[in-house]
Amino acid sequence: MTLRVLSIASEAAPLIKTGGLADVAGALPAALAPHGVEMTTILPGYPKVMAALGKAKPVHSWPSLLGEPARLIKGKLGAHPLLVVDAPAFFARDGGPYADGGGRDWGDNWRRFAAFARAAADVAAGAVKGLAFDLAHAHDWQAAMTPAYLRYDGVSLPSVMTIHNMAFQGHYGADIFGGLGLPREAFAFDGVEYHGGVGFLKAGLEAASAITTVSPTYAREIREAQFGMGLEGLIRSRGARVHGIVNGIDTAEWNPETDPALAQRFSVRTLPRRIANKRALEAEFALDSHDGPLFVVITRLTWQKGMDVLLEVVDHLVGLGGRLAVLGSGDAALEGALHAAAARHPGKVSVRIGYDEALSHRMQAGGDAILVPSRFEPCGLTQLYGLAYGCVPVVSRTGGLADTVVDANLAALAAGAATGVQFNAVHYSALADAIDRTISLYSQTDVWRGLQRAGMKSDFSWSRSGKAYADLYAALVEDR
Ligand code: ADP
Question: What is the pTM of this model?
Fold first, then answer.
């Protein structure tokens, strides 16, 4: 029996991407197909998404979707079915999915994503002729009102709510409640009410049949205040209904044997060829060329990612003979501080501000180690790409970083299982110690090769995680 799942996401690669959520939503349909799941993705009709649709005919229309006219259009996300909510009043805007060109959030995001979720709930519940679903799977706060709408519509369809990052919750004032089209009783402690206002993610977590997040460690961490960010009590109360499933990587996109972005392709059997990528990266970043360790960082420049602490250890790293290449964008103060560090250490530290997918591939292929000093990290993808490319991850022990990198302690080294370096807390001395350890491991050529090989052989394809989602869906549909 094929299970029909509607995946509700505010972004999905390759059509629209601002971060890791897009990679996951884009990869899920193919990851689930081998496990008897037909996944249809539903997206908002941003200009980029509409342009990719061409001239498709609408399959449904809403004279008033939270007050605005909207249509539903069928398309394709790669080889898989796609539905698009074409509501020009909400989505036909230049700029990003959530913010204008200047980076300011659209002031009506609550209404835009409530409307999107309202439409998705209608579709999931079978309001559109010819479309039927067994389960709804909502991603992050932008889709989180879908399970809430299903609940207050009295629809018993099972639903899954996935948290990709607890830091983004969609929290608004109580004054928006009247615009959501929900019955009065929904504004309740166990409904959409959250600290006197309305919480989108909170509402979804209350209403969904099951909750998932993107690693087992993060699933445990969000039970505590430091990571739960106000929702820890709710997560604890949902107990066994909270699951952690690690993200996979797209191995067609991220394969050093076939990657067209690289100066020199390589595999676990031809690791010495990697050096050509290191030389090319040194040239691209105007770094001194030598055999000492080259660290890379590829990231959003934010507090979450620990970039302030990275800045504190730059002098230490350079003092030990290391070099550092950073690709990132985000916080202007961090950008400025990184430029200043590069100016202090010409030939040793170099920074590119911006978002550059191809360069990120070249950095994973040419760097010796990738630094990921995140304060919290639900799953993290850059350490997985590092593993696949022989760029040894040096990571804080949190969330998905803790679950996917095996620390090079003596036991793991002896067993040949080590794939990277972990450190406990994101502050100066812990990161400096981790860099010391990394440089010492790097100086032992055979040990370092062993780390690279073990990383490249570890399996972070979607096959295991696809099965985990499929099993969860099947159990929920059976329970119904
Ligand atoms: P998050 O979703 O919190 O930003 P993840 O590690 O889960 O962190 O995913 C980040 C994704 O974005 C990865 O695919 C990473 O390679 C990519 N990325 C982040 N910053 C940049 C950048 N400046 N240029 C290119 N790719 C980037």
Answer: 0.94
Q: With a 6 A CB cut-off, is 452 part of the ligand 1 pocket?
A: no
Could you read off the pLDDT of 145-167 as tens digits, one per residue? 999 999 999 999 999 999 999 99
3-class SS of residue 397: coil
| Confidence check: pLDDT of 445 > 90 | yes
> Tens digit of pLDDT for each residue in 239-272?
899 999 999 998 888 999 999 999 999 999 999 9
**Side-chain-side CA neighbours of residue 83 (13 Å):** 29
CA-closest residue to ligand 1 atom 26: 357
CA distances, 175 to each of 172, 180, 187, 245 (Å): 8, 10, 11, 36
φ, ψ at 124 (rounded to 5°) = -60, -35
CB 382 within 8 A of CB 370: yes
Cβ(299) – ligand 1 distance below 6 Å = yes
Burial class from Cβ neighbours inside 10 Å (0-12, 13-18, 19+) for residue 20 reads buried
Cβ-contact 418, 408 below 8 angstroms: yes
Q: Where are the beta strands (DSSP E) in 221-353?
A: 242-244, 294-301, 323-330, 349-353
Closest CA to 171 of 193, 150, 149: 193
Say how far apart CA 7 and CA 24 lie, in whole Å: 11
CA of 250 to the centre of ligand 1 (A): 14
- CA-closest residue to ligand 1 atom 10: 20
- Point out the ligand 1 atom lying closest to the alpha carbon of residue 21: 2
> Which ligand 1 atom lies nearest to the CA of residue 383?
6
Say what the pLDDT of residue 121 is.
Answer: 98
- The rounded distance, in Å, linking the Cα atoms of 167 and 438 is 30
323-330 β-sheet, strand order: 349-353, 323-330, 294-301, 369-372, 392-396, 421-423
Q: Can you tell me which atom of ligand 1 is nearest the CA of 385? A: 16
Q: What is the per-residue pLDDT for 197? A: 98
